[in-house]
Amino acid sequence: MAEATDNNRADEEIEIVEPGLAGMLVRDAALIFAALSLWAAADAWVQVTSLWFAQVLAVGDALLVGLLLAAIFHEWGHYSGAVAAGASVRRKAPEGVSLLRFDFDYAANDHRQFHWMTYGGHVLHWTILLLLLVALPLDSISRIALVSSIFGFVVFATVIEYNIIKDTWRGTSPGERLQQITPKDFQQASIIGGLSGLFAIAVLA
Question: Which of 139, 135, 154, 132 is nearest to 199 (CA)?
Answer without folding.
Answer: 154
